[in-house]
Amino acid sequence: MTSILLNGKQLCQELNISTTMLYKFRKAGMPYHQLPQGRPYYTLDEAQTWLISAGYHQENTWSK
Predict the structure, then answer these.
(1) Residue 55, by phi and psi: left (phi above 0), alpha (psi -120 to 50) or beta?
(2) Domain boundaries, the chain
(3) Stretch 14-40: mean pLDDT, rounded?
(4) Which CATH architecture describes the domain 5-63?
(5) Which of 5, 10, 20, 60 is the least crowded, having the fewest Cβ atoms under 10 Å away?
(6) Residue 1, Cβ neighbours under 10 Å: how many?
């Protein structure tokens, strides 16, 4: 099983969220992957699973 890694901008587009909301999600514990001295990357499946387990739901945008 392979997962496509998305950068922050791509994840925001896929989830229909702002970068500010992405930073809030990361601070709250959203999983991401990062190489030393590199940018964080995300998998869409992990992000969506985390959002659902954290109590968020999606109508048009992710909210509690």
Answers:
(1) left
(2) 5-63
(3) 93
(4) Orthogonal Bundle (1.10)
(5) 60
(6) 3
Q: Which residues of 20-30 are buried (b: 16+ CB within 10 A; e: fewer)?
A: eebeebeeeeb
- C-alpha distances (whole Å) from 35 to each of 8, 42, 55, 60 are 14, 12, 29, 32
**Pairwise CA distance, residues 10 & 12, whole Å:** 5
Q: How confident is the model at residue 60 (pLDDT cuts 50, 70, 90)?
A: low
**Residue 57: what pLDDT?**
78
In this structure, the dihedral spanned by the alpha carbons of residues 47, 29, 26 and 62, taken in order and rounded to 10 degrees, is 50
Distance of CA 3 to the CA centre of its chain: 14
Per-residue model confidence (pLDDT) at position 35: 85
